[in-house]
Design goal:
Length: about 190
């Protein structure tokens, strides 16, 4: 699935609340699953303020759910959605989470570098609620909104090749010496 639309905290939580009796599974790549022994170690709220390369200020909030696979711990089944919701409720007693915050799942193990991924899709398979994760992507907000991606000191846009137009080039001047050689002042001649 390649939707890659960010989901906010309110919708994420509502989807969990619809299926409290299912087992919560996470798929982080094609046929790659977070081990059933995973823990939700923390939920972070990160307000972000940035200025993009076009000089425009942006702000948003991310809600990051961190998953951890303990080494050597064996478990046949992952936690129930209801247990995940009890962790969410515990967190929200101390930290009110922004319902419009963009949700990311943070995960890594010995075969997969830790990264933050988007919940791309929620799938029901038998007794499982599977959250399909997809990586975030780098983007240029300025170009995405049809604007300039900043300028150099000479006013050229940094993300586009400099194109010189013939009309903007100054005409070349030919220098002509109008002084005759017999009226020139030579060093040591006493004319100055």
């Amino acid at each position: 699935m390649d939707k890659l639309e960010a989901i906010n905290w309110k919708i994420f939580k509502e989807r969990l609340e619809q299926h409290p009796d299912l087992t919560l599974q996470f798929q982080y790549a094609e046929d790659k699953w977070v081990d059933a022994s995973y823990h939700i170690t923390e939920i972070k709220q990160a307000p972000i303020v940035s200025v993009d390369c076009g000089g425009v200020m942006n702000s948003w909030t991310e809600i990051i759910v961190q998953l951890w696979e303990p080494e050597g711990e064996q478990q046949d089944r992952a936690m129930k959605v209801s247990k995940a919701l009890s962790i969410v409720n515990l967190v929200e007693k101390s930290l009110p989470l922004n319902p419009l915050g963009t949700v990311k799942i943070e995960f890594g193990n010995s075969q997969f570098d830790t990264r933050q991924m988007f919940p791309n899709d929620f799938l029901i398979s038998g007794e499982n609620l599977i959250i399909d994760l997809r990586p975030d992507a780098v983007q240029c907000k300025a170009i995405g909104r049809g604007g300039s991606c900043g300028t150099t000191d000479t006013g050229e846009e940094c993300c586009t090749p400099a194109v010189k137009k013939e009309a903007t080039l100054k005409p070349k001047l030919q220098m002509v010496n109008l002084a005759s050689t017999d009226q020139m002042c030579e060093p040591g001649s006493g004319c100055c």
